[in-house]
Prior knowledge:
Elements: E1 14-16, E2 25-27, H1 34-43, H2 46-68, H3 100-135, H4 137-152, H5 155-174, H6 176-189, H7 194-207, H8 211-218, H9 223-234, H10 236-259, H11 271-278, H12 287-314, H13 316-319
Antiparallel strand pairs: 1-2
Helix pairs in contact: 1-12, 2-3, 2-12, 3-4, 3-6, 3-7, 3-10, 3-11, 5-6, 8-9, 10-11, 10-12, 11-12
Amino acid sequence: MTDPVVSSGNDPQTVTASHQMGPEAVAVPAARSQWRDVWDQFRTHKGALIGAFVFLGICLFVAIGPWFWPLDPTETNMRARNEGMSWAHPMGTDRLGRDTFARVMAGGRISMAVGLVAMLLSLFLGTLIGVLAGYFKRLDGPLMRLTDMFLALPILPLLLVLVVLFREPLSAAFGIETGIFVLMVTAIGITSWMQTARIVRGDVLALKEREFILAARSIGTPPRRIITRHMLPNVLSPIMVSATLGIATAIITESTLSFLGLGFPPDFPTWGRLLFDAVSFLQSYPMRAVWPGLMISLVVLSINYVGDGLRDALDPRIRGR
Length: 321
């Protein structure tokens, strides 16, 4: 004797149960992936979607653009100096006849590389300190006081001091370009991890009292495994948001240092260095400052929109609306 088929209205789920004949059969809809839900929510944020396309477009422009543009960004041509926009030079030339279009692409590769690597360093430091402070009570006080100390420091003067102190030793050890790159990445990374650490610490403190964490601790799971298997996956959303916003912060910081003349050398273009070189000719040739400034603005604006969209998409309280 079998139980009747149970169905409710327009509910597509149908359950058929049999206690005497064979195993229980349950027909349910295919489960949706969590990342599919995140993508569906992200698509509803028009600004984030446009920002993602703009950011990817700029990344492709600076990454593969030099392969299709034949001019060398460091090649000088005194006969073509201070030219305006033309088919041969879409963004004109500078005072030494170097092609601005090629220099903007080359500078973008450097600025984006600095932003990405510095973001990864700051993200690693912030996540590490935040998890340790949130999970281990005895480390919470010292690590948070260290975070407060870094937050109280004036970041720009500290960066200037670091550049002045370590520029020459790193340049002598790794070469000028590589040494300055290491210096920029390290200086920006160790001065921008504090917000990530505080966000991660707050989430870890909340997670530490959840039932699945208490259950894992009750059966003797070591802290390292709890952190890697349970804590980090559940704080992934604020880490990803901090990552997107960290790229914009790192690019702005590198551009600021280069604009002050403390970044890369003149023959090693970055967007900030191009702005610095254009200041002396701002009244006569204002477009020299417009192009790198426009690229910096577009990158920072698009990343901020992407971070805003990711924050909404990764928040389950908003995702279900």
